[in-house]
Design brief:
Layout: H1 3-19, H2 25-36, E1 40-41, E2 60-62, E3 69-75, E4 87-90, E5 103-114, E6 128-139, E7 152-154, E8 159-162, E9 176-178, E10 183-184
Parallel strand pairs: 3-5, 4-5, 5-6, 6-7, 6-8, 7-9, 8-10
Antiparallel strand pairs: 1-4, 2-3
Bound molecules: 2-acetamido-2-deoxy-beta-D-glucopyranose (2 copies).
The site of one 2-acetamido-2-deoxy-beta-D-glucopyranose (NAG) has 5 residues, from helix 2.
Length: 196
């Protein structure tokens, strides 16, 4: 091998190894649309078009090989060590484009309001859906039964109302369901909270 060949090889290795953790284009577009659809959010300074979305620490994790986002977390819990965020508005439809997502978590976000969007059913790989202590309201949607991979569903501490849809019984892989501290009329929840 000539020296030039070796240099080219090294460059190629460097290029491929560094580009492998770059955010997938489709996911980046979806995340930027996600950010833009809130009335206000504290993400404006960190979620920038010019940066790799896999480096949006504390909120986003990507698969090293595919660059697809598999983990998305938002919390404003002052007792948890992670990055705190504020989100004002409802869960945007663009979340449905993050089709490799396995974990989606929102917690301690009182200004996160509105219903659980139907686009969530496009997340066929979702293992954990956690929306806790937010202002999210409306019914526990029957369409959640389409999330056939789901292991954990935690919807505690919101303003959800109505009955618990029987269709959730078809989520055979579910090992945890939390619906405590809502305004539900019946079902597998804790005794009525005295705080309400
Ligand atoms: C979602 O994906 C579709 C194609 O599947 C694309 O046309 C649309 O622009 C995407 N939306 C966002 C917000 O990324
Ligand atoms: C959310 O945004 C709306 C519109 O800008 C504003 O009226 C409201 O006070 C905000 N709520 C919170 C909790 O920040």
């Amino acid at each position: 091998m000539t020296r030039a060949t070796i240099v080219l090889l090294l460059l190629a290795i460097f290029f491929f190894s560094s580009s492998s953790s770059q955010c997938h284009d489709r996911d980046k577009k979806a995340l930027l649309a996600f950010k833009d659809s809130f009335l206000s959010t504290s993400l404006d300074d960190t979620w920038l078009e010019s940066t790799d979305c896999c480096s949006w620490d504390g909120h986003v994790l990507c698969d090293k090989d595919t660059g697809r986002v598999y983990y998305l977390q938002f919390s404003n819990d002052k007792f948890s060590p992670g990055v705190r965020v504020s989100l004002n508005g409802s869960i945007p439809a663009s979340v449905g484009n993050l089709s490799a997502l396995e974990v989606l978590m929102f917690s301690d976000l009182p200004a996160l309001v509105g219903p659980i969007p139907p686009q969530l059913t496009e997340l066929k790989k979702l293992l954990t859906l956690s929306i806790i202590r937010t202002g999210v309201s409306g019914p526990v949607p029957p369409f959640l039964s389409k999330l056939s991979s789901l292991r954990k569903l935690d919807l505690g501490g919101n303003s959800l109302s109505g009955a618990i849809p029987p269709s959730l019984g078809s989520l055979t892989r579910l090992s945890y369901i939390g619906l405590y501290d809502n305004r539900l009329t019946a079902g597998p929840s804790r005794p009525p909270s005295t705080a309400n």
